[in-house]
Write a structure and sequence with these properties.
The complex is a heterodimer of chains A (160) and B (303). Chain A is 81% helix and 0% strand. Chain A is an all-alpha fold and 160 residues long. The termini of chain A are close together. By secondary structure, chain B is α/β, with parallel strands linked by helices. Chain B is built from 9 helices and 16 strands. An 8-stranded mixed beta sheet of chain B has the order 11-8-12-13-7-14-15-16, with helices on both faces. The chains are: A mainly alpha (160), B alpha/beta (303). The interface between A and B is medium-sized, with 17 and 14 residues.
Chain lengths: 160, 303
């Protein structure tokens, strides 16, 4: 009779572990799409002389940045207030949110050399965050999955 | 006389000022209609210059952030696309309006390379007064016409008259309009925002000297219209030698000064028109024809 609840508990434990592991992986994917977005900004500003609002609209419409859904929320030519609000709504840690908020505040606000060096420094900060996230995933991802499964099994055994 | 304008330049500009436009929301209609310039200075209230006086928007003191926000908005939030304009000290806006600014100059090799810490913005409102150039257009269409210099002080309406001349002459003649600062035709995305005539080709953003050469070489115009000539004497003379009729404006305040320009251009201008200012803005005060020595000595009646 206790078998069914035991299986459910074991499954729940495993799912919780996997979910936690996926949340770390999600950050890695989010940050790597942010890095691609910075590359795109750099190329379009350097070679296309496109306006920031245009670039954001095209990136949002391209479908290549599925994890950066906040871009689609930016519709005004004066993109900064919308960028800030959209980033603040994202479930990001403090450092990642700060990075994106700084980026939004500085995009389009200086001459070409200023923009390129600003993007370069944002890329360096982002790469560091990405390395940390990848390291965290490598270290803790498997641990969370295993811990979830083991905890689930332990609880299931206790129930049995 | 000037006819009632057809577009509200004041509102058009406010729409391009971003968050600061809220300061102008309660502007009286007389200010909207008569404003020639909007002056924005850090630490001061915004002021509209009306030609006959000025109107201050008391209750709003502009901060450095406001000025920065205006500059950002005028640059479509992409300042990096406006480096040349920053060096030159002005940005041409949608509708042909012009925002000039000043701040701290960054100088290299004796030339202004950039302007930082902008403290003042002066926005000149472009006007499209259809009909204000009719008198001069009749003179320009006369058989013996050989070039016209329109001169006056800043804010006397020279560019406005020039725009209307392009519109009128462009209805029947081939006109090349040299619009180095995008103020006359206000070309936006390749399309002139102002009516400059159906037969008018616009050389938008070209340096004037190159534009004069290009116009003669590729457009075979009957008339070349050019705003604010400064040091393009050789090219102007070349145009006249090619049989093109030249209409240009210049900053000066008397026929004596206009004659000096005419001498420098080897007598390229057969007549000169002096514009009024203040309450007589946009009006041609006097039209004079040049004698055989290039002196503007013979007074002409405007038709």
């Amino acid at each position: 009779m206790n078998l069914v609840p035991a299986v459910v508990i074991a499954a729940c434990g495993s799912i919780a572990g996997i979910m936690k592991s996926l949340s770390i992986k999600k950050r890695v994917k989010f940050l790597s799409q942010c890095a691609e977005m910075l590359e795109e900004f750099e190329v379009r500003i350097r070679y296309g002389s496109e306006e920031i609002a245009e670039i954001i609209t095209e990136l949002a419409a391209s479908g290549r940045y599925g994890r950066l859904g906040f871009l689609a929320e930016i519709t005004e030519r004066d993109f900064r207030p919308q960028w800030e609000k959209a980033v603040q709504r994202l479930p990001l840690n403090k450092d990642d949110a700060r990075l994106l908020l700084d980026l939004g505040a500085r995009l389009g606000a200086s001459d070409l050399a200023g923009q390129l060096s600003m993007l370069e420094s944002a890329k360096i900060r982002l790469e560091r965050s990405l390395e940390d996230a990848a390291k965290e995933y490598a270290e803790k991802g498997r641990m969370f999955r295993s811990a979830g499964v083991l905890c689930g099994i332990a609880c299931a055994v206790a129930v049995l | 006389m000037i006819r009632l304008e057809e577009k509200n330049g004041f509102r058009e500009i406010c729409g391009q000022l971003g968050a600061v436009s809220r300061y102008f929301a309660g502007a009286p209609l007389s200010v909207e209609r008569n404003a020639q310039e909007l002056r924005l200075r850090a630490g001061k209230p915004p002021v509209a210059e009306l030609g006959t006086g000025r109107y201050a928007f008391h209750g709003h003191i502009l901060t450095r952030e406001d000025i920065e926000s205006v500059i950002n908005a005028l640059c479509n939030y992409s300042v990096y696309n406006y480096e040349r304009e920053f060096r030159e000290g002005f940005i041409t806006l949608r509708g042909g309006h012009r925002a000039g600014f000043c701040g701290t100059a960054s100088v290299r090799n004796g030339r202004v390379e950039n302007v930082k810490s902008i403290s003042s913005v002066n926005i000149r409102i472009a006007r499209e007064h259809k009909g204000c150039g009719e008198g001069l257009a009749k003179a320009a269409l006369a058989e013996d016409f050989r070039g016209m210099l329109i001169f006056g002080r800043p804010l006397s309406g020279k560019t406005t008259v020039l725009r209307d001349l392009a519109r009128i002459l462009g209805q029947s003649e081939k006109v090349a309009l040299i619009d180095a600062r995008s103020e006359i035709a206000a070309v936006y995305n390749g399309i002139p925002q102002n009516d400059v005539g159906v037969n008018t080709d616009v050389l938008d953003g070209y340096p004037k000297g190159e534009a004069l050469e290009t116009a003669v070489r590729v457009l075979s115009p009957s008339y070349i219209i050019c705003d604010e000539i400064t040091g393009e004497q050789d090219e102007l003379v070349n145009c006249v030698n090619c049989g093109v009729k030249l209409i240009a404006t210049a900053h000066c305040s008397s026929f004596d000064e206009a004659e000096k320009i005419n001498f420098a251009c080897a007598g390229a201008f057969g007549c000169a028109a002096m514009m009024g200012c203040g309450s007589r803005i946009g009006q041609v005060l006097e039209l004079r024809k040049a004698d055989e020595n290039g002196r503007f000595s013979r007074r002409e009646e405007l038709i």
